[in-house]
Amino acid sequence: LTSLLRDEQRQHSRKHLMIAGDFNLHHPAWGGIQATQDSGSDKLIELCDEADLDLWLEPGTITRDQNGERTTIDLFFGTPALTERLVVCELALDCHADSDHLPIRVLLDAATVPVVETRRRLWKAIDTEKFDVFVADNLPTLPTLITPRQIDDAVNHLVEIIQRGVQESTPWANPSPYANPSWTKECGKAVKHSRRMYRRCIATHSEEDWQVYKLARNQKGRTIKAALRRGFRSFIEEAVDQGPQGLWRVAKWAKNRGQQQGSTMPALRTPEGGAAESDTDKVNLLRKVFFPQPPEADLSDINTTQREQYRLPPITDTEVRAAVKKAPPNKAPGYDTIPNKIWMILAEPGSRSQRFIPLLTAIFNACIRIGHNPMHFQTSITVTLRKAGPRDYRTPKSYRPVALLNTLGKVLEAVVATRIAWLVEEHKLLPDTHLGGQKGISVDHAIQLILGRVHQAWGEGKIASMLLLDVA
């Protein structure tokens, strides 16, 4: 196995690789936490890490059952590109096997998924001056906002102006699968010069032209190599500056490097035992699973005594501008395709659109005063992602939804969330043992609190027990 995997790495002969068999090794990584660990199992894990292989069989699956000895020694591995097409890796108990080893069934979705090209804007090439001038010339005067309909109309009008400004100032992206963000103009010039020298050499068959071409070719290689090196180092430095979030981005890039983007979704099982095969049926089934109708709550035991009301002043331009600046500029936008970067341009102190922030503040204050959340802020795109680990991807529970809301609504959410957090801390509305969602509180505080209770119980000669609840 060692020689096979290393030959594959050297030759890069196969993009997809599956390895299955009786490895006769025990380890908790595939046998479960109760499994013993053999001396050679660590070597197998190292080989799989070097070859970038995923374990497809769910840990703890019994693959050999003889004389009461139930172990996991038959394993199935595959490359990440195939993992994206894995439907299920499970025991095939319906298959007859004249052996004490149980058969394993692996299903892969080999159907070719047509690539749907969605056009997107090249935000790096936006003409900020042109966009700023267009928005400044077309911003409406502050409207009267008394009813929910007026708020919705004002938000829709504002978004329409922004989208027209984007059309005037931002070109469409024309991505290439071979594009590299580290490529520079010097690289392009070196490539053109090398090709020109090669054509001259072919035309003249001169030794002198051949030497000139060799120098141009070598210079091209050095230029490209240096540019790619600088680009990669810049990418890593930027990720390090972003902290843990940036490091996770690098880890995700390294894991998915060279793989096809996107994944397939096989036919899903319905609760009635049927199958959802078309896209429409899958969407309807996932909607029922992800967003079920909640049961009616029993509020009979709620104390109806009116609590003290805390009043806050109207939202200010400073709060709105601060919320816009804190937003991640390159976060995935929602249905309107407007990223946070656009709001940041309009919120700059030197922007020509000086009326943008006051207009936004007036809309937000009207939303809070009336108690209305505009429909545009509630519109989202739900993206379905696979959950990690060996799973049966024919069941809807093996996926998780991610809702991409329109970015303008998140600015209002950020302002309100900041105010709620201030009220909670200022008036001590939460008990001291509540640690979630509070500024400056991390999981370390929860661990220290638990350890303190355990040590206190031990000091009093008691037994410490802990109950963990997962409340849905």
What is this structure's SSE topology?
Blueprint: H1 2-11, E1 18-22, H2 28-31, H3 41-51, E2 54-55, E3 64-66, E4 69-71, E5 74-78, H4 80-83, E6 86-91, E7 104-108, H5 128-138, H6 148-169, H7 185-204, H8 207-241, H9 244-256, E8 268-269, E9 275-276, H10 279-290, H11 317-326, H12 340-347, H13 356-370, H14 375-378, E10 380-386, E11 399-405, H15 407-426, H16 443-459
Antiparallel strand pairs: 1-5, 2-5, 3-4, 6-7, 8-9, 10-11
Helix pairs in contact: 5-6, 6-13, 7-8, 8-9, 11-15
Total beta strand runs: 11
How much of the polypeptide forms β-strand, as a percent range? 5-15%
Biggest sheet layout: 3 strands, antiparallel
Give the overall silhouette: globular
The Cα radius of gyration reads: 30 Å
Which sequence of strands runs across the widest sheet? 1-5-2
Through-space gap between termini: 45 Å
SSE arrangement, N to C: HEHHEEEEHEEHHHHHEEHHHHHEEHH
Describe it.
- The protein is built from 16 helices and 11 strands.
- Strands 1-5-2 form a 3-stranded antiparallel sheet.
- Strand 8 (268-269) and strand 9 form a beta hairpin.
- The two termini are 45 Å apart.
- The chain is mainly alpha-helical and 472 residues long.
- The model has no long low-confidence stretch (mean pLDDT 87).
- It is globular and about 80 Å long.
- Helix 6 (148-169) runs antiparallel to helix 13, helix 7 (185-204) packs antiparallel against helix 8 (207-241) and helix 8 (207-241) packs across helix 9 (244-256).
- 46% of the residues lie in helices and 10% in strands.
- The chain has helices at 2-11, 28-31, 41-51, 80-83, 128-138, 148-169, 185-204, 207-241, 244-256, 279-290, 317-326, 340-347, 356-370, 375-378, 407-426, 443-459; strands at residues 18-22, 54-55, 64-66, 69-71, 74-78, 86-91, 104-108, 268-269, 275-276, 380-386, 399-405.
